[in-house]
Amino acid sequence: MSGTKRSTVKKASAKKPAAKKPAAKKPAAKKPAAKKPAAKKPSSESASELIDAKLAALGDWRGETLSRLRALIKEAAPNVVEELKWRGTPVWSHNGLICTGETYRDKVKTTFAKGAALKDPSGLFNSSLEGNVRRAIDFFEGVKVDEKAFKALIRAAIELNESK
């Protein structure tokens, strides 16, 4: 070797620079609690007024029929409580549910909550006969209501509610 000194140059490392580590994940922010549905604002209209409006909106024989049935219920049970439940269905109660008044395209139906336990000597019940609890009466256009028998069923339903 000749007498020249070799200068040693330090070479940069051939290694790739270390990959940047991803920043530590922050814990997921808590999702805001699901909002509870707003409480229904008390209506300025009473249930009776809402039922009046429903009957008026029907504007045909169904409204007239349900209106007549409602009057008979009130005659048979002056202290009956009227409510609107289950998507606007009129409901009558006295120490428990007596019956509901439902309207369909071709009929008006009164469903007695405990109808299977009621005596029906006039044979008004003509629907929901297969169940062990309820019974119903379907009223069709042009059919006359047996008012005396209907009021007797209302009174019997109240007596049943009071006996339990």
Automatic annotation (TrEMBL):
Superkingdom as given in the UniProt entry: Bacteria
Pfam families linked: DUF1801
Composition bias type Basic residues, residue spans: 7-39
Annotated segments matching region Disordered: 1-46
Residue stretches making up the YdhG-like domain: 62-158
Protein name listed in UniProt: YdhG-like domain-containing protein
Species of provenance: Enhygromyxa salina
